[in-house]
Design brief:
Radius of gyration: 36 Å
Order of helices and strands: HHHHHHHHEHEHEEHEHHEEEEHEHHHHHH
Distance between the termini: 59 Å
Number of helices: 20
Structural class: alpha/beta
Amino acid sequence: MQDYFAYLREMIIAFFQNMGDWFKRRWYDPFAVWGDYFDRYHYLFNNHYENFGFWGWFFYVFFWLLLIGLVGGLLFLLFLLIRKYVKFYKKEVDKEKLQKEVEQLQIELYNSEMANRRILNLSLESVSGKSVGEQEEKGEEKRPGDDKLRFPRLVGVDRKYADPSAGLILMEDADKNATLKDVCERFRNFAASQMHLYYTPETIRILFASMATSKLIILEGISGTGKTSMPYALGRFFKNPATIVSVQPSWHDRSELVGYYNDFTKRFTETEFLRAVYESGYRGDPQLIVLDEMNLARIEYYFAEFLSVMEMPNPTQWNIDLIASSLPSDPAHIVDGKLHIEQNIWFIGTANNDDSTFTITDKVYDRAMSLFFDNKGIAFEAEHTSPMVVTYDFLKNLFAQSAADYPISSKTLEKFAELDDFVITNFKLAFGNRILKQMNAFVPAYVACGGTELEAVDYIFKSKILKKFEVLNVAFLRDELLALDKELTKLFGKNEFKVSKKKIQDLLKAAGAQ
């Protein structure tokens, strides 16, 4: 038996020496033949096997069985890994192939729709001299020579406001003594008494404070909760009906939104959206343009230019390109082929969160203010309230006055900075200058509407910061979320930040479901 262990020791030493020699030879001469390794192993075995004895042979056989089992297990494990990789690779290849086929079908569908639309325009123009959706939809008067105009619909808007007195009624009837709180209360009562739409005071405050903060407002929630009805009611309240544009799943670029120049007819296919944007340049009151079901298509595709334009700090540079160059017969407000986006416009998008829609990206959320509708409004008795004429300048002054009267307190800013540090440390998310700028506009306006400072800060934190947590793997963040809940209580009090704490509880429930 001692000879067996001597043999085993010499075999192990020989094995590692031969392995080192083999690698050394491969380095200097990759094509060199194998050495006499097996002859050496055979020599060692012949030199010792006669003195193994019973236990020596027992361990010899046991060792080889163990070695064969280990090698077999490693080979089987390698087989399983290769098979798993092959399945995974095949699945990914099939998925990529299917995705390319879907994208190709979408492109073909889009091209087909565009071709059908051009054919339809050509057919209609050959019969009546008008393209789809032009003057007859609005009852605009057609004049001789209109068939030669590139923008007949927008020229019709020019004619509509040719009389200087067309917009004077706005200034004459405007209520110049109302406060922001008065506007909120009157709109809430107007919606309830005349349209049977019921909103909480908090919802109305968030709406107007959002208007003070951003030109893009997103109304989210389940169907039937009054998302589209709210901007429709607000337009009627301002005596300037909102323009409602239904977004289609096939929208891939801005041509679906603002139209496009038709090289065959030498005319611009004008959309209702374009008309509303253009007409806002003649009006002195708020102009609401609703993008209904805005996430049926990717927002950053068809609305990308507007997202970029509204980021410019100088509003005089808010221009979009419509056409390469202008003609004397083009609309008056199209200068050098560009159309200016006026400050009295608010784009309000409605969004359903279900499998039929696209996810709204952070790029859009960061530039917008969002309201979430999770249930229908509760009916209440409201006195009959008439519409209210409000000019854009009047609203702008109210927002500016609220910023002067109700700036965020230094104490709240200090606590919010501590909250920022906590979120950075535990969740690797930072608020950013854009969110702080939005908070400085939103909070004073919300307070001027009748709310409290902490309610406004709570809403900003929930809609701007906690909203980003939805894309994180919250199942691994339970302890951090519980700590965040305690941090909110420590900084702002037990009965404050109710909206954010509810959102945290919803995230914890989602983590439990995972």
